[in-house]
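Tokenised fold entry reproduced for everyone:
>
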Amino acid sequence: MNKNVFLRGVRDGVPIGLGYFVVSFSLGIIAKKSGVLFYQGFLASFLNHASAGEYALFTAIGELATYLEVAVVTVVANARYLLLSSALSQKFDPKTGIIHRILSGFVITDEIFGIAISQKGFVNPWYMYGAFFFAAALWSLGTACGILAGNILPSRAVSALSVALYGMFLAIIIPPAKKDKVIACCVAASFAFSWLMGIVPLFKNISSGNKVMILTILIATVAAIIKPVNEQPENKETVK
């Protein structure tokens, strides 16, 4: 059964991986300017699969930051994954072991979280492993290719192609929003407040990762108070 779940994850990870390749390609160009070698970029992407986190990482390297500074800026940029992991842990079968929980926290990304949290019933960690298997491969390969390509393609042209990734993310959140008015309201509120935080002087200079954390906590808390979820997972897949 885990094999079938893994393959289903691989299938769902294909469009995510294709979008990741384009985004990480542009990050590879930035890494090239910072003096990062292609194999170093590949390893960095495999271990740090987040665009904001990698951008902060490569920028810090380019500015000759210390190891401590690189570690701190990377942790801050990726802090939102603590929230995503905590939220997703509620979708696991209570019998799921600690190793699977740790590995699931490692493979989580915004998009993998989106497809995992939308699954009916309990989330089988092998589904996430499958999605990560393809998506992470193209994410890492895209960074390496971007470094090798250097400045062959204009960075603006490569960045423009990354709009496909946002379109894919919309495809993840729109169907649930159509079925549930609470989710629809949360999505609309997140768009509105994200825009406001981008123009209000008090919040304008806050990093994107911290903005996501603040909005996630506030919107999720309000939604949980107003409309708590009482549903129990329907399926109970055994994780081995």
Notes: The mean pLDDT is 81. The two ends are 10 Å apart (CA to CA). The first helix runs from residue 2 to 33. The chain is about 75% helix and 0% strand.
